[in-house]
Amino acid sequence: MSTQAVGMRGGRWAAFQRQLQDRPSLVLVGVLLFLVLLIGIARPGTIGGTWVANTILFAAPLGIVAAGQTLVMLTAGIDLSVAAVMTAAAYVAASQSYFGSIRAVILALAVGLVVGLLNGLGVAIFRVQPLIMTLGTGLVISGSLLVYSLQVSHQGPPAVPDIVRYVGSGKLLGSIPVSALLWGAIAVIVIIGLRQTGFGRLVYAVGDNPTAVRLAGVRGWLVLLVTYVLCGFFSAVAGLVLVGAINAADLSLGDVYLLPSVAAVVIGGTSIYGGNGGYAGSLVGALILSVLSSLFTLLDAPDPLKQILYGAIVVLLAAVYVRTAGDTG
Amino acid sequence: MSAAATAGRPPGGPRFGRLLRRNAWTLGTYALFVAVMIFTISIHPDYGPFEVQSLVVGALPLAFAAVAQTCVVLGGGIDLSIGAMMAVANVLAARYMLGHDFQTALLISVAVLFGGTLAGALNGLIALRTKVPDIVVTLAMSFVWGGVALLILPKPGGGAPDKFGELASGSLFTPWIPNGILLLVGVVALVWIPLRFRGLGLALYAIGSDRTAAFRRGVRVGPTRVFSDALGGFLAACGGLALLMSTGIGSPLAGTIYTLSGVSAIVLGGVSLAGGRGGVTGPIVAAFVLTLVPADLILSGTDPNLGQVIQGVLIVLVVMAGGLAPLLRRRAPRTTDETGVAAA
Amino acid sequence: MLLETRGLSKNYGAVVALSSGDLSVQAGEIHALMGANGAGKSTLVKLLTGDVTPNAGVILLDGREVRFPSPASARKAGLASVYQDVSLVPLLTIVQNLRLTGTTMEAIRPWLEELELEDVDLTELARDLPTPTLHLLDLAQALASMPRVLILDEVTATLPADLSERVFRVARRWRSEGRSVVVISHRMTEVKALCDRATVLRDGATVGVVDLESSGQEEIVSLMLGPEAASVVVSEGSVADREKVSKVDRRPAVEVRGLRSGILQDVSFTLQRGEVLGIVALEGQGQADLFECLSGNRRPAAGEILVEGKARRFRHPHDAIGAGLVLVPADRALALLRQRSVLENIALPMVNRLRNWGLINSGSERRRVKSAIDRLEIDTRAQSRVMRLSGGNQQKVTIARWLATGFMTLLCFDPTRGIDIRTKEQIYKVLRELAASGSAVLLFTSEMPEIQLACDRALVMYGGRVVAELSAHDATEAALLRAAHGLGRAAAAEAAS
Hints:
The complex is a heterotrimer of chains A (329), B (344) and C (497). In chain A, helix 8 crosses helix 9. Helices cover 74% and strands 1% of the residues of chain A. Chain A has a single domain, classed as ABC transporter involved in vitamin B12 uptake, BtuC (Orthogonal Bundle), CATH 1.10.3470. With 329 residues, chain A is mainly alpha-helical. Chain B has 344 residues and is mainly alpha-helical. In chain B, 73% of the residues lie in helices and 0% in strands. In chain B, helix 4 crosses helix 13 and helix 8 crosses helix 12. With 497 residues, chain C is of the alpha/beta class. Chains in contact: A-B, A-C, B-C. At the A-B interface, helix 6, helix 10, helix 12 and helix 14 of A face helix 7, helix 13 and helix 15 of B.
């Protein structure tokens, strides 16, 4: 914008608006509570410890993959390969479990790191648009996985390693899902990492203004590279958690998570143009989407209707967000 | 220095060279197609009308998806719901055409195309009114249209009169030129030629290139955006019908892959995702390349499952090659307007 | 009255760009619109041409109220503008651009001849033509619609002198035909020579209309700067301090030898520690290239840069910053993270090394940032997002960044452009203090009177070379102006005496 601030408009509404703009998660928590309330009204007695534990259990893979997507979107990018990485990591872990759980898990995470590295190299060094680069690697990964699956098929059906199953569906003290704890740990690391580390600052800075970042002496490409590697890693972790929860690996396991991973970040208030937002919002966004599905299931809504409402609500939430937060791009 | 500044390039310079430079990418796509075609014929010496026909029928839906995405992207947007809209068109047509004669089928087609146009326009209007980025709107709308498709036809079924399928697979003149290619050329020409030579087409390119400048030139930016999205919807519906022609039944999930492979085709076909640059022939030819490659893999005895891998590698390499040129050029002094010091 | 506006106002969210724009233009006059950057000139122009719509106020044409929802409608009513940022669509050819506005070749051809653009290949993409050519083409296209009011928004800022002359010729012709021209320009001499009257804006409001025949530059300047301006211009207390300090510790901080890049030709000079060295030049004389090379944003084609006696090659601003050379660019938009907080903006360079990517010591960071904020007296009431600060405070943030991070040599490229006089004073005070504490400061300013206020000596650049060196004492505006127009050292010295 070529205009400079000559003055500010006062007023309580403006102040409130500014508050919302800075803390979008407040609105989101409101929406989340509203949805929970709705469930409570629709099916009294549903809300309880078990329900909460199960909801979090099902939200965990989405929440974890959204962590990676948040980082990438904060740099004004997008990662369309997350679903392929989730699937690949899950499948690799399952097919390699024969050689030992540890090796299986390490290989699965390596898949994520390698894809992230490829994405990062393309976006940061070759300046390929993130959308295209990650679309391309996504295709490469799912194609390779298909070939790989045929080659390992003689080993017998893939079996989910025990550790992975424990992380994905196990419960501590009888009620606390292990995946929730893992998700919580990741959330703490990502939130603190974004707020309190030099790298986190730079993630925002690169998304906000690459020229300023360069002028401040920062090597922006390195920031992008690390961001995409982290995204690949988180996607792989999400894939493992997912396969652990479902306890069966197939070649389209992660597919359904691509769109929700972006949706969770967007309704969580992270700008698709980068530089603004954070993981706290995405976390609540992931919970909202999960509670929404849970609500639809409780209401016995048929699948297609569920999908339609889901899409409509995402647009609605995004629109409400744009309206309250104002134009921040 | 001012003389040089006004004159720009030497007048009457090599126009042919410039034409070549501006269309280098598209020409590259043609060359790629020719190369792949030569390879195909070399491993499959008795390549004949039947193969041509199956290539065209197979490539038709993707070609329409690519042209649909092209219309949206040229205007500076992106539509991630094209595959889902194709699915809706596909199942809608399959459900209502079943058991009817050809003429009714054509009538239904017209209705479906109309619906597709409306759906595309709806995408554009939502993005325009709510100011939510179109990538988010269309992503969410892909859920909605996907759900609608499932409501219409929960599982693969329906059908169309045989004659309807012959719109793509039959051949009017010679078996070397299947109807599908005529259909494609006809529809695209119908949409594209008036567009290319009318103000509206110019406006479309203008808003894709620079919205502010276009507005100042007198382009009505909002309506033009909605128009480009509506056009995308129309062509997506064409793609859905083409899908019905090639498979003969309706399937609520068959369309979904066309969103991303359509994007692949336009990238390969030289349309800039940033908008304003590219044409319509590049993506169409790219759609044929992307259809031909997996078929070739089967013929040459390679694992056909590598098709997707090759498609992905192709996209990444092509775009990297495109990105490499400016990277090399950057070693030379930059112009001042990219840098830190120059004034506002 | 041909064109009149009353109380036009425009705000973007909470930011008020124009609060009360009043303008009246008679038929057959060239009317100047003046004011510091951010005073609202460009916003007023955009309202007049339908580029944006006003929040309040009216536009009267021939005494009748008009509304322009788009530039096309304004053009139809007889108002056409050439904007400071080129408004040709880059990926279309010139011919196609003309078709967008419905300009016929017959209509534009005489104007292409008038502006000596016959040789331009109109089938080129706009993006492939040089910026000055595009500006003239834009002008030709505006003229082709035969507007009753032609608006030129800082068109000459990017044009070399001979091309500017073509623009003025057209403007005078427009006046002689009984039409009107509104000119926005920062160049006082240009305005004096060309215009009949001037409307002055300050802080988004019209503060006065001046008859240029009868009144002098001082009147315009004092209107532009506001009431407290005069007092500052006379307060030369700092100059006395400077004489004392400048005796201390004179070692070369940066030596530039035979530097070539862009239009820069063989530039050599030495910047001493403890001094503020001014660079003076008209627009586009190579000063931008010089700062680019020194800040590591571009690799020079030839020549060397010595820092503390050692030759350095900068491949990235990172290297220059490592060597202690830091840049404050003119355009704040390039340096600031608009959506981030003041703290994050100031602390940005502190994390530019890999080893600082870990946890931030927020205590020490906050202390360093706070001391920089205090030193520059930044108003931090709206600190959660830098874009909510005023222009002056934004500029202070770009300087505070380096105060907090630390540096040896500060490269300031027109840091006071378009900011109010009080902020200017603060910035110059800080620059003087920095020099006094042993840093070196290289300062380019487009406002020549300020050289004597802030600098120890000044270099004048013209056509990519350093053509004159003047001590602060000799660097009067007249002497600088002469040298900056390439009138030679002798003439400059003569003017100084």
